[in-house]
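Q: Predict the bound structure with S-adenosylmethionine.
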Amino acid sequence: MSVTSGMVGDGFYNRNSAPQMAAIEYVLPWLEAAVADMRLDDVPATVGLADFGCSEGRNSIAAMKRLVEACRRRTQRPLLTIHSDLPTNDFSGVFAGLRPAGRSVFDDASVFSAAVGGSMFGQLLPPGSVHFSMSFNALGFLDRRPLKRLPGYVVPNGPSERAGVGQVSDDERATFAMQADRDLQAFLHARAAELVVGGKLLLEVFGASDELRTCDGIYDALNGAMLEVLAAGSIDQRQYEDFYQPVYFRTLDELVAPFAAVESRLAKLYRVDRAECYEVPVSFVEAFHASGDVARYAAAFTNFFRAFTEPVLRSSFAGHPSLDRLIDDIYTRAERLVRDDPARYEFHYLSVAMLLTRRE
Ligand SMILES: C[S@@+](CC[C@H](N)C(=O)[O-])C[C@H]1O[C@@H](n2cnc3c(N)ncnc32)[C@H](O)[C@@H]1O
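A: Predicted complex:
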C-alpha cells in the first residue's frame, strides 16, 4: 500500500498546479535535445513514451505533447503514450484530457495512449518497451512511512529557519533520507527494466539546496494550522504527533548519489547526461508582488498545497467524527496565517532534475 492515495481529484489538482508546470517547462528543452540525438532502433516497432506520477493529467499531457512533437521530428513510427499513477489516483481528468471532443489530443492518427495504475517504485511496463521515460514532481512522495511518528513537525525536512516552529532530529531526518534513497534506486531499477538500450529517462522533482527548500512556507503554514486545531481541542497531542506528510525534499547531491559509488550497479545501467538544481518563478507569488493582493495570494498558495497535502491529511484522520469540518478548518487557518504574515511563509519552487541514458 502506498502512503498517499494521490492528489485532490475532481480537477482540483489540475487547477492548482501551475508551479509544477513551470518546473516541467524548464527541463522540456532537455527532453527535446535528448530526442534529437537519441538512438532509435527498428525494434520494437512502436515507440513507447511514459510519464510516471501523471496525476489528473494536465501537466503530464502538456509535457507529452512536447515529447510527441520531438519524436515526430525523428520518426513516423507509431507512438504509444503511457500516463501512469497510483491505482487510487483520479484518472478521469487524464482520460478526458487525452480525448477532448472524442479525438486524440495529440492530433495524430498514429499516436495511441494508455493509462496505467500502479506504484512507480515497481516495474509497470514490459521489458524493453519504453524509449523515453519521465517523471515530474512525484518522486518525493515516499513509498512507505519509515517512522511511525514524527512528533515535532509535519514533514521530514523540518521547519524553515524563518518560521522556526517545530523540530526534526538528525536521526529522524537521516531515516527519511535513507528511505528516499531506497525509493530512488527502486525507481531507477524499474525504469531500467522497461527502457530500450539507448532510451532516455528525465527525472525532475521538487527539492532543496543550502539556500532554498520547496517545503518552506507550505509546511510551516500547515504545521501552524495543525497546532491551532490542537490548541482548539479538535485533535489531541497524540494525533498531532502521529501525523506527518511522507514526502522528502532531495538535494541535487542526493539525486545523483546512486551513480557516485565506485561499484554502483546503477552507473552500469545509466549514463548521467546532465543534472541541475534550479528555481522557477511561481505565478501566484509574482501576481502578489505585482498587485499586493494578499487575500488572493493566500487563497492561491493554500489551494496549491492543499491539492497535494489533503489526501494524506484525510487518511491520517480518517476516524475523526467530523472529518470534513476538521480538514476545512485546517486549510482555512493555514490561509489566514499566510494572509496575516506572508513574509513568514515565503515560498520558492526549487527543483532537482537529471537526464539519463540507458546503457547497453
Ligand atoms: C504533485 S503530483 C505531480 C503530478 C504531475 N506529474 C505534475 O508534475 O504536475 C505527484 C503525483 O505522484 C503520484 N505518486 C505518489 N506516489 C506514487 C507512487 N508510488 N507511484 C506512482 N505515482 C505516485 C501522486 O499520486 C501524484 O499524482
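A: The first helix runs from residue 12 to 15.
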